[in-house]
Sequence to fold (491 residues):
Amino acid sequence: MYRKPIHRAVAYAVACFGVVAVSFTASPSQAQTLAVEQVASGLSGALYVTSPPGDTQRLFVLQQNAGQIRIIKDGNLLTTPFLDVRTRISTGGERGLLGLAFHPDYDSNGYFFINYTNTSGNTVVARYEVTADPDVADFNSEEIVLTVSQPYSNHNGGCLQFSPMDGYLYIGMGDGGSANDPGNRAQNGQELLGKVLRINVDQLPYTIPADNPFINDPAVRDEIWTIGVRNPWRFSFDRITGDLYLGDVGQGSNEEVDFELAGDGGRNYGWRCMEGTRCTGLSGCTCNAPTLTLPIYEYLHSGGRCSITGGYNYRGQAIPLLDNTYFFADYCSRNIYSFNYDGQQVTNFTDRTSELGGGSISSIASFGEDANGEIYIVSLGGTINKIVTKMKLEATDLVAGQRATLRVTNATPNGNVYFAYSLAGTGQTPIPPLNITVALQSPVLAGRVQANGSGVAILSRSVPSGTSGQRVWLQAGEQGETTNVISTVIQ
Ligand SMILES: [Ca+2]
Ligand SMILES: [Ca+2]
Fold:
């Protein structure tokens, strides 16, 4: 693809696109259609997916009632489970194996943490260790971190996340269950139920971080990070900023997304006197008191919706135009949504359902993020689907002095496909004649190819010698549509 010297290639690009980034004041459509790509199926009760930090080869999938952690390695589901704790858990409804988080130093210490309901139905957070085989954990390595009694079978929370900013373990605890928090536990500072906890698990027994928000408040236990959540089923950290997004499941009316800036603990999210922005009339706190934090977004139980599944703020590499876009879903209606949040207001709220499976993904239990920051949708029905662009770019390895092949699929049949590259990284470059925004900085046109009748376009180019070690970003586009971005280093 480096057939021409760079400066001539730039001139070629400008001539062909007729544009350069700086010459634009208009802001044409950034439309980029998303799709899902199924990466695994048959994982009955799939509940969550994640990867160890920096591990771009493997996805680890939780199976709620099977009590197993399974590995998808380079796209293949391994037969042997990473871990099987079926004998230690209770199952059914909201019980089972509910959370998994790898220690930030997993690569060196081999520690990971799971959250499950034990055979008595109580919440257990436990530490495990990997064996000498990186694809198998040690069942006998269990060290219990924390046990919390559960008065009812539902609202067990179960989400575990390490903050990318402070390295502490955050634990989502539901209010204990039943309905309307009958014990008023979420507002009771002596109860760990109805809270998000934050503890230091670098060594066990765990310790309390010195700057936990209630450490000087005798009325509130020191493990507590936030108060007043009902069932913080899934929450996540923005891997860049450390900001927290939390989907708190409502009672019968309001589903909510809560948000806090990195490190901004000590909040009270209002349950049980508030369900989203609604005053429940229940005691325990004062509705709309200034000490309560309202959600940044909520929706009602219309259109068959019943329960929010909190997701992730996209920080991946493949779809730069999605940067800082938060995805979440409703468990019952199968709707998948996204929005942008700038710390002040929610914008660009979008119903993504038709793009992301068209409602075919049932019982969305979680979203997950791989080591590259790409987002997956996890269905209890047993599928793992990756969020991708509908029009897809793939590339062979780029080797200096050898030919490389770029391949686009799902282009418009017989349409013109433009292949671009950048040596400057990602950016936003509008190309008005094509009504697209290329997600590259200073893109250079490598070639134009007419797609075949199946929407496949292939470009073959020689990579110039002497470019070994150089990073290059690749993207393709057509009228009104663009592909993913590939970032790769020339070999
Ligand atoms: Ca305290
Ligand atoms: Ca709330």
